[in-house]
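Subject: Protein record for review, amino acid sequence with backbone structure tokens
How to read it: Take the token row as a discrete description of the fold.
Enclosed: The protein record, placed directly beneath this head.
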Amino acid sequence: MKSLWHSALALLIVNGALLGLTPPLGKLATEAGVPAAIWSFVISFGAGAVLLCAAFLSERRFKLTARRLRYFAVVGAVSFAFPNVLLFLAVPHLGAGYTGIMFTLTPVMTLILSLLLGVRRPNRLGMLGIAIGFVGALTVATTRGEVGRPAEILWVLVGLSMPVCLAIGNVYRTLDWPEGAGPIELAAGSHLAAAAMLLVAALLQGQAGSFALLADVPLLALGQAVAASVMYTFFFRLQAVGGPVYLSQIGYVAAAVGLAIGVIFLGERYSALTWIGAAILAVGVLTTTKAQSRPG
């Protein structure tokens, strides 16, 4: 566990694999009738509650300053609440594998923001890897989902909005990281803030009664909450160890996991062009991973 906590590559793989479970689980939940806001609430409330307990057990003081409350609110909105709602709105139309591939656009968007704002910059090999990954992502995007079920452009745009939010969150978390704060307490506060926003949104939309639908998918809800809790235990640590651009590479791992689950377990079918794009993405993540251990 100690070696995992200090290894950017190991943290990347763990975070990406657990993130890749989210589109398939979300697809099954939305097919069961659970609204996007409520399933997103399951993720943030489950992760926030577990991480809050972990913060208290570690005997760290959970401080609530004005700056931390601002941090919780901004991160909760742009990193968790908005992207998850967009994800679960899009996944029934795009498929779990295809929606997961949208995560792969996050690195290049994070890189652009990082360069503009002067945050940590990757070396030349890292930039090459991100460029390769972006080509793969564009190749996949042109296929518009599953074979025989091309999605409307509207849903492709909804899916594309997700990595924009994630990129903003990646850079903001580094720029405004509260001094002296630990990753677990920041993750807990941000997720609980997101859960509060999602609960209000669900109530305003008259979806309070839909919480009962979670009882129809108890194993899915438990699995999603556990996966989110474990993932976000390491998510903010990866932010500190690798920086925003390297953290954004979890999208490549998540895409591979989501695509595999969609095809093997959910019966999704994708065109040859989708698989070519996925292969290009794999080259991209291998290149950026190698670049992490090299000087510019």
User: Anything to note?
Assistant: The mean pLDDT is 83. The two ends are 30 Å apart (CA to CA). The CA atoms of residues 41 and 270 lie 30 Å apart.
